[in-house]
Amino acid sequence: MSSLTTTIPAGTWVLVTGANGFLASHIIIQFLERGFRVRGTVRNVEQSQWLLQGRFKTYADSHFLELVSVPDMGVEGAYDEAVKGVVAILHTAYVTRIVPDPNEVITPTVTGVRSIINSAKREPSVKEVVFTSTALTACSFDQKADNGTIGPNSWNDAVLEAAWAPPPYGLSHAMANYPASKVAAEKEVWKAVKENDLHFTVNVVSPAGIIGEPLTSKHVEGPASWVVHVFQGNKAAMDPLEASFYGNVKDLALLHVAAVLDPQVKNARLQSWGHSAHWNDFLAILRELRPQKTFVADYPVPYHIKVTVDQSDSVALLKKWGGQDGWTSLKDSIAENINTPYLDD
């Protein structure tokens, strides 16, 4: 693996936005371990000091890792200073607010994409840009529907319509705004690629649910902490989404690294969903891993999402850049998620 040809040389600067996120923190670790320097953007540097401690400390002390503040990613020019001198950008940042008004979620997400693309266009050192999208841009994961076969031109346009339905804004808008913001943002990415003669390559990685090792207590507290919800029996979070797809955070971080480093990956839309699973699959594994603990009862009628998706490109990249045969198993991912000091038994 060390002999693989890379698009950018080790020792150069890589920018990771939303650096304190679950996926972003693992992307940072993997670039650092490969000998790259990483600049991470966060809203508040003081509140993200954990990224300079623990397993990150040696890199921070040796000036291979630094944090910079970008308090509002939707402002034009917000990333101009952060992109200076970087050769690659990984844009993982997104609007985390769950609110009914789509103007507070979709609009800043799209303007954030536009802002960082414009900053990259103004910085000649940039050679590679990778955007983190989501499987929900391609389909709805509707348990009642057959989502069919997902192809390179599959789009979940229905969620955009739901999010932008006329006011009064309510719960249905709040639930639609996140996936709708990702649909709109990814479309903005490909629009920029089509309409501009960019001096850098653009790729998109689209995960579904992300599970695995948390690097801070913050990564077991959020609404998307899927294993934690099942571990704690949080039915309010479990019931609306009984089945989905789940990938290990380290696998997904590796795919972002590969999307930057692999010279053959250009204008790719990498569907990186991982394993199809129902909560009953999680519960069976958790009972095996923690036989002394009582978990919520199985759902009486389990199901799996009816969708076909080709993940062969992502799996091939895991083999090429990580030497692994396919996705990390669901059992190993769940074990990593609960074998942590941040989660009490």
From TrEMBL:
PANTHER family in the cross-refs: ALDEHYDE REDUCTASE II (AFU_ORTHOLOGUE AFUA_1G11360) (PTHR10366:SF562), NAD DEPENDENT EPIMERASE/DEHYDRATASE (PTHR10366)
Any one GO biological process: steroid biosynthetic process
Species the sequence originates in: Periconia macrospinosa
Single GO MF annotation: oxidoreductase activity, acting on the CH-OH group of donors, NAD or NADP as acceptor
Transmembrane segments: 12-32
All copies of domain 3-beta hydroxysteroid dehydrogenase/isomerase, residue ranges: 15-214
InterPro entries on file: 3Beta_OHSteriod_DH/Estase, NAD(P)-bd_dom_sf, NAD(P)_dehydrat-like
Name under which the protein is recorded: Putative aldehyde reductase 2
Domain of life: Eukaryota
Keywords carried by this UniProt record: Membrane, Oxidoreductase, Transmembrane, Transmembrane helix
Family: Belongs to the NAD(P)-dependent epimerase/dehydratase family. Dihydroflavonol-4-reductase subfamily.
